[in-house]
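Appendix B. Chain record.
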Amino acid sequence: MAVDAIVADESAVEAAFLYNFALFTEWSDLPANEFRICVLGSDPVLAALEPVKKKRIKERPVSVTNVSSATQAQSCQVLFVGRSEHASIGDLARQIGNAPVLVVSEENGYDPKNVIIVLIAQQGRIGFRINHTSAQANSLAVSSKLLKLAQQVY
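Structure tokens predicted for this chain:
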């Protein structure tokens, strides 16, 4: 399989995870007009999220947006931090603070306390860990079904 095809497959799986994380998470206060899934940085998952624009989450149409700052990210319900932005994830999390943003990223050697859901690639499969304490601090209620599927909850 060509490298581009592998990246596309991985991005499609990550996009499906993001969509399902949104379905199994509750926000205390959602905007009435749309549900925003954002991608920080340049990452192929942005293109893989295109089909999600045709769906609805929490009875709202979905918008998929590329953001470049914490200020923009604060208006997102789900924020995927792309590989290009891993170095700045600590600063980003501090700037977002306790805003109700579900921050998701891939495991890459940074402090996972800055991320609510960490995607983990192991043996050709993708799993995830959930920082339930951070989710609650951000006024997010993660479904017990999602918590049971996580490889680790802390």
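Further analysis of this model is presented in Appendix C.
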